[in-house]
Specification:
By secondary structure, the chain is mostly beta strands. Helix content is 0%, strand content 47%. The protein is built from no helices and 29 strands. The strands form eight sheets. It has a four-stranded antiparallel β-sheet with strand order 3-2-1-20, with no helix packed on it. Strands 4-5-6-7 form a four-stranded antiparallel β-sheet, with no helix packed on it. Strand 21 and strand 22 form a beta hairpin. It starts with 14 loop residues before the first strand and ends with a strand. The relative contact order is 0.15.
Length: 345
């Protein structure tokens, strides 16, 4: 197939960077290329302080919110597509600064038992059903405000020392790079599956896991402060669909929805009759059935946005004035195809 030779073989994970507003509880999504934040939803919990979030192995997302009247932190399950929260349990600790699921979905929590700024924070495990915590140990750190499990270790970002690991058996911290101190910020942190570390305070940053040194992506354009960030599975709530817009004479553009957020999307077409055509072995998405005539013609290869939408920025203009064109889009991450679309000229 002509257009298959033009595929890029690498794909992006169907995941996204989200954050929860510290004071409003709104769920937002960050564009990891520009740091721009977009509201997903979930307001209506303005009387809590939201400063922890974690996703388990089944993709369920939990957040910790402490009522503004100073009572114990509560755990809610949050819908990553709408931001809607469902109460799970009340914990036995005042503040949960960070949450992280480890192997077997053991839930770790960094906690604080008072409002004192000089209290070092504790590492505990948390039973979601009962809210009961079990002390592992004292981290000896004053400001570990984020935590993630990655590559067999618990990682945290401390406002004084930067990137550190925590022993899950003792809570003993280890500085990744003792020679590097800073930036002195109480940042939120999230790990991507490939090991990329994101930090977020007012700026969105990417951190080298070997050196702990951050590089800046951009200013996080959001009206409030984030209480936590997490790298989550993408929504893709609807099946892939293809449509056209801007039809004017023999000019048009195609747009696809339901694609993998930030994933590669291929638009292709065939002239005259439709398929089917099967992508041959050894090619990306081998075995996928396309409703296009063999060989299909590459129209455009692009990236979907954070909502799984992709479109051709240039108008499609076949060489003929009259006839039929069959269009289809292919998600190169999941190998799912849109509906075939026939356009008459």
């Amino acid at each position: 197939l002509l257009f298959l030779a033009l595929f890029l073989t690498s794909t992006l994970p169907a995941q996204r960077l989200v954050g929860i507003d510290l004071l409003t509880g709104e769920l937002v999504e960050f564009d990891v290329h520009t740091a721009r934040a977009t509201l997903i939803g979930g307001s209506g919990f303005a009387h809590h302080v939201w400063n922890s979030m974690a996703a388990d192995s089944q993709g369920r997302v939990y957040v910790g919110g402490r009522p503004a009247n100073g009572t114990l932190t509560e755990i809610y399950e949050i819908d990553p597509n709408t931001g809607r929260k469902t109460f799970v349990s009340q914990t036995d600790v005042l503040t949960i600064a960070a949450l992280a699921f480890g192997p077997g979905d053991v839930l770790y929590a960094i906690t604080k038992d008072s409002f004192s700024g000089w209290e070092t924070r504790k590492l505990r495990t948390l039973d979601l059903e009962t809210g009961h915590t079990t002390l592992i140990g004292d981290t000896g750190l004053l400001s570990p405000n984020a935590m993630n499990w990655y590559d067999g270790q618990l990682w945290t970002w401390d406002g004084a020392f930067g990137l550190m690991t925590l022993d899950p058996q003792t809570a003993q911290p280890t500085d990744v790079n003792p020679s590097f101190v800073g930036p002195p910020i109480a940042a939120n942190m999230a790990f991507r599956p490939d090991g990329t570390i994101y930090l977020q305070e007012e700026m969105l940053m990417v951190v080298d896991p070997k050196t702990g040194i951050p590089g800046y992506v951009g200013y996080a354009q959001w009206r409030g402060l984030m209480g936590a960030i997490e790298w989550l599975d993408g929504p893709n709530p609807a099946p892939p669909a293809l449509g056209v817009r801007g039809r004017r004479g023999d000019l048009m553009s195609a747009h696809a929805t339901g694609m993998t957020p930030y994933g590669k999307v291929l638009f292709a077409y065939s002239i005259g009759a439709g398929g089917p055509t099967v992508i041959p072995p050894g090619r990306p998405c081998a075995g996928t059935l396309l409703e296009l005539l063999d060989p299909p013609i590459l129209a455009f290869l692009t990236l979907a946005d954070f909502q799984g939408r992709a479109h051709t920025p240039t108008r499609l203009s076949p060489w003929f004035r009259k006839g039929r064109v069959h269009l289809q889009a292919l998600d190169l991450t999941t190998c799912r195809t849109t509906n075939p679309l026939q356009v008459m000229y």
